[in-house]
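[step 3/7] inverse_fold.run input=structure_tokens len=523
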């Protein structure tokens, strides 16, 4: 026993098991939706995409979620037009945060007089947000950012002579769409904002000119059309002239105001239809701004309207929040979206399902029982084959240590263990037992009725390792495409199997080989 414990490869195995156990204890193991329970959100892409575009979309979503510190969220593709987002656990706050992030595409635009002055792709740096308490009850915040020199020149050209104009900052502006609302809301939007600052406007500018400058319909861009209705039944006729010209119709009304039959008629005309409903505490202006993605509209100062570009063009997105915590959340989200850029394709949430944590705990119990039964069965078969405990016990101990190390690595890299990953662990352990039997057979079994004394134990183990490495690399080669192509749950199975095989080749198989040499040397 002392000789075994002093062996270098066995010591590496012991250290790996101890480090894995410590990591699991402190970091824990991220379990999937099917084991822990939680929410499954289905995103539908605007169109079918290539694998590279799908990978880009998944990577950007993961980046946003990770930067916001949201853990235990698994983002994976499903086919060529859907993304599945698994939110483990039952925290309503975490679920709401994830849903909010998934609803934001991250397309940023700054417009002056309806013309695009800055795009999200122009941003090269986003500085830390500034949050300060205002004189009234509320919190003001600023998110400074810097754009490219070329984009600064474009901004200067668009801004020239527009001192006092609003700089409208949009996030996910619904381009190429029609926004339908009742006439009362339509008329309220055509008037001047109550908090309008006219200090930067020339004194000779007339009220009608000011109304034209601040007309929301002009500021949101020519590709968005606003339509007012007096009776919901006239909506289809109002949209007839836009068939084939606009892609989307957004109806600002409840189901009571505009029924499902109207929505169905509009869909049959070939439009993508969305319904937006005003929140309890929203004014009409705030409501409309949310729909079109208008975050804020700072007034363009005269020094930025000269037409001269700055050497280091820097700008600020500003806003207000009701509390410090809300301001921190909003600025963090905005900063991450500006840093990660827009998704390569538009998405929408088409489904949300809940899996009970009770069902997840039942899965875990069944898996543990199945694992224990498998180990007992393997131990019995190995003992029946060799009829020697000193051979059977090391094989079982190595298998258990392999499970611990796989889980330890999963804890370190924050790999989610779900049913597919558990299947991968079982497959890796099964392969490991098979490899250990190959080593044992090559070291112990007879050939032609005589012990193979011509070859030393060392040579026979080396021959066994040639077989093992060939088998393992063949399996890794078969699993690699599944891991690379991100084929849904198959990826979890493939990645876990590969991790198990690599651990086996580098740690557990060499350790068992050394144990076999020591135990069987005099056999």
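[step 3/7] decode complete -> sequence:
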């Amino acid at each position: 026993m002392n000789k075994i414990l002093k062996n270098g490869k066995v010591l590496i195995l012991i250290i790996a098991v101890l480090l894995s156990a410590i990591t699991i204890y402190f970091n824990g193991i991220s379990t999937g939706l099917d084991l822990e329970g939680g929410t499954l959100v289905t995103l539908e892409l605007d169109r079918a995409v290539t694998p590279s575009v799908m990978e880009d979309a998944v990577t950007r979503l993961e980046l946003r979620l990770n930067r916001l510190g949201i853990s235990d969220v698994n983002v994976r593709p499903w086919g060529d037009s859907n993304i599945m987002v698994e939110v483990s656990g039952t925290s309503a706050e975490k679920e709401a945060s994830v849903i909010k992030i998934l609803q934001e595409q991250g397309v940023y635009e700054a417009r002056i007089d309806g013309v695009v002055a800055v795009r999200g792709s122009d941003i090269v740096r986003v500085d830390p947000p500034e949050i300060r308490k205002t004189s009234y009850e509320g919190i003001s915040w600023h998110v400074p950012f810097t754009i490219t020199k070329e984009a600064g020149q474009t901004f200067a050209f668009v801004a020239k002579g527009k001192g006092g104009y609003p700089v409208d900052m949009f996030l996910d502006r619904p381009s190429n769409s029609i926004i339908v609302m009742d006439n009362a809301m339509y008329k309220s939007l055509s008037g001047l904002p109550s908090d309008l600052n006219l200090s930067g406007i020339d004194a000779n500018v007339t009220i009608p000119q000011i109304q034209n400058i601040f007309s929301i319909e002009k500021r949101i861009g020519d590709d968005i059309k606003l339509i007012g209705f007096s009776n919901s039944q006239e909506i289809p006729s109002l949209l007839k002239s836009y068939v084939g010209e606009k892609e989307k119709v957004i109806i600002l009304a409840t189901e009571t105001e505009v029924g499902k039959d109207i929505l169905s008629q509009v869909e049959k005309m070939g439009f993508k239809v969305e319904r937006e409903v005003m929140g309890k505490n929203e004014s009409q202006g705030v409501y409309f701004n949310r729909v079109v993605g208008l975050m804020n509209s700072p007034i363009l100062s005269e020094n930025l309207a000269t037409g001269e570009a700055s050497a280091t063009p820097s700008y600020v997105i500003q806003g207000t929040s009701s509390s410090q915590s809300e301001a921190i959340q909003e600025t963090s989200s905005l900063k991450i979206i500006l840093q990660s850029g827009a998704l390569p394709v538009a998405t929408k949430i088409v489904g949300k399902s809940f899996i009970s944590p009770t069902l997840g705990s039942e899965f875990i119990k069944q898996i543990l029982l199945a694992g224990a039964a498998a180990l007992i069965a393997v131990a019995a078969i190995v003992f029946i084959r060799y009829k020697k405990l000193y051979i059977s016990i090391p094989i079982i101990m190595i298998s258990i240590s392999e499970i611990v190390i796989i889980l330890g690595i999963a804890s370190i890299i924050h790999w989610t263990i779900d049913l597919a990953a558990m299947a991968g662990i079982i497959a890796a352990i099964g392969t490991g037992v098979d490899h250990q039997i190959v080593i044992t057979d090559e070291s112990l079994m007879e050939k032609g009725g005589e012990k193979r004394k011509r070859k030393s134990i060392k040579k026979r183990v080396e021959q066994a390792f040639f077989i093992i490495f060939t088998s393992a690399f063949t399996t890794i080669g078969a699993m690699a495409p599944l891991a690379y192509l991100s084929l849904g749950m198959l990826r979890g199975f493939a990645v876990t199997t590969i991790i198990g095989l690599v651990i086996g080749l580098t740690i557990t198989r060499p350790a068992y080989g050394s144990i076999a040499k020591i135990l069987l040397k005099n056999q």
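[step 4/7] annotate
The longest strand covers residues 139-147.
The mean pLDDT is 80.
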